[in-house]
Write a structure and sequence with these properties.
Chain lengths: 361, 361
């Protein structure tokens, strides 16, 4: 990027920092959530060298990969039935010692569960650790007013994390290739310091290339994000927040229909805009097979669902025979504002696909 | 990316592998050269854990950064007067032991110098190490026939590197956000293995997400690269190669004018399409200050040069007083085919800017 796009990047990132609740910060755009999380854990590892990074079993798999790349020990903590990190288990792990960083997932990619950041922050009264909030998926839901009380309490503490990752290429209306990492403490910039012999000589102030592990980056991403944020400001009562609210409303509505329909078993009520469910069957293995058939039948009808393998305890499988520890579920992400108006049509196709899949059993 | 863009990515990357001279390979696109080099050094580090990565003092600064991120020891090897890695010094360093990986820069970013890969390959008869060819900048010059003999000999051995990085967003006519990493041995894929619980279930064959440290990536980059390579195939006698040849011809022509003009001192003849030079002065410090003034005067005349700090030994400073170890030079990258036709105009503006800068001294 050039001078203009760098200025726009600084403004756009500052707006995200203000959304988090930070007046000062250090941060920049990067190519995506993996690179953003890599920078956050790289900084965390420099401040707590050799100490363990912990994340929930439902955290994005990139954290384990990244910890491996950085040479940091990594452990997972079990989740509760809603897919949130189990704070009792986390507390026991902290008591055992050696934990440097807790990754709090603010919206898991599989089910949209939000880790109880409020409880994690409270644990700092007893233990010394760094909190990295991976809000790559869910970060913008900060702006939504009518979240569940528990989700709201978690988001309300995000300013107390040491670092936050948000992907504008998810809910931020940007195309792929736009992640964002932010640090609460601007002095983290010292960890990035390096000498580049041939670039940036036209600027005397600290430039973005000095606070990024990536070198030259597309200015276009910054320009697009800046422009989007001018048109759709990151405020609670704006058009942008209404889009997120509508997506969540669509997820809640579809969840209610699934819950009341005897053909399905479901996960917890959606915290954000993702729902997971499975067809009811005698055994888990049969339900898993039927999920695949419903997926295929829906796709033939141009309803493109997703599939997810989840631990059985995340789904209320009731009296189904637990012949497997994981269940192959259907998954839908209602992230477009239009989804709210489409719920009837989605339901109609899903109904039809489910009937067709059952016949083929 | 989706299915179509993944298929296009595989085809586009295979075409780059064939250009290198590989019938089989493992590789993928990524967000840029830093991420591509990170993956290459990450693989190198897994195969030679704890061993030192060496690169020349003119290698891109990202290698030192990346080695630090990966927790690998890193050392630099001096360069000869042309900015290429000094093979005698490299040989001595290998004899001292502990080197796992040599980064051969196939076109430095500062001056376009190409490390003598042929000599580095020969060193493997005596020492056991892995070669990573960082051809992020210069890789496509493989296709240019009339390189200097030494440069040609280096490129002719690139197929013997274990990994190669090429940035299509440099000479490959792509916008930012398109790097490429390739491994000669497809079995390197085993080092990437991971489980993603919720993606890719629609494909049974190995997918690109399984051989990349990044997770979801823009399919648009793959589509654009694939389409570009269909229109401008990666062949020696094609339009694309002619573009590179023209850029190099422009650099050679400008180099000759600078060499014959008593007002300037210059670096070695360009191996690719980059030239560096400085105004002649009594002392190095004066030449450096004058470089900045010429840069400014040229910019006022809409000729946008670059500036680079180089070790004095890379410039033929003749009898200038060496009151500094580094010299602040002017730098120009003639990477557009049109530059060949623009040489007269560039020279005319540079001449004018140099005169104006001298008057202000």
């Amino acid at each position: 990027g050039g001078r203009a796009s760098s200025a726009m990047e600084k403004e756009a990132v500052a707006a995200i920092a203000r959304m988090i609740g930070w007046d000062t910060h250090l941060g920049h755009l990067c190519s995506g959530g993996t690179m953003a999380n890599l920078e956050a854990l790289w900084v965390a590892g420099q401040l707590h060298p050799g100490k363990t990074v912990v994340a929930s079993t439902q955290a994005h798999y990139t954290h384990q990969r990244i910890a491996g790349v950085l040479g940091l020990p990594f452990e997972t903590i079990p989740c509760d039935r809603a897919g949130r990190i189990d704070t009792a288990a986390l507390s026991r792990r902290l008591a055992a010692g050696g934990v440097g960083t807790i990754v709090a997932t603010m919206g898991t990619t599989a089910t949209g569960a939000v880790d109880p950041l409020d409880a994690i922050v409270e644990l700092r009264s007893r233990y010394d650790f760094r909190i990295h909030a991976d809000a790559a998926y869910g970060g913008y839901f900060l702006l939504v007013k009518d979240l569940d009380a528990q989700t709201r309490r978690a988001f309300d503490r995000i300013a107390e994390a040491a670092s936050v990752v948000i992907d504008p290429h998810k809910h931020g209306l940007q195309p792929y290739g736009c992640g964002c990492v932010l640090f609460r403490d601007p002095s983290m910039g010292r960890l990035y310091s390096h000498d580049s012999p041939y670039t940036y000589f036209t600027s005397t102030e600290m430039h973005l290339g000095e606070i990024s592990l990536e070198c030259s980056r597309p200015g276009a991403a910054a320009v697009a994000l800046w422009a989007t944020q001018r048109l759709f400001p990151l405020v609670c009562d704006g058009e942008f927040a209404r889009g997120l609210t509508n997506g969540r409303a669509a997820a809640l509505e579809l969840y209610e229909r699934l819950r009341k329909d005897g053909r399905f078993v479901i996960g917890s009520a959606p915290e954000l805009d993702i729902i997971v469910w499975a067809p009811r069957a005698k055994r888990i293995s049969e339900a898993s097979a039927l999920s695949q058939r419903i997926f295929d039948e829906a796709a033939r009808r141009h309803l493109h669902l997703a599939l997810a393998t989840l631990p059985v305890h995340l789904i209320d499988v009731e009296d189904m025979q637990r012949d497997q520890d994981t269940i192959f579920c259907l998954r839908s992400v209602l992230m477009k504002p239009e989804h709210r108006a489409w719920v009837d049509r989605i339901w109609s196709i899903l109904d039809d696909a489910t009937t067709a899949a059952a016949v083929k059993r």
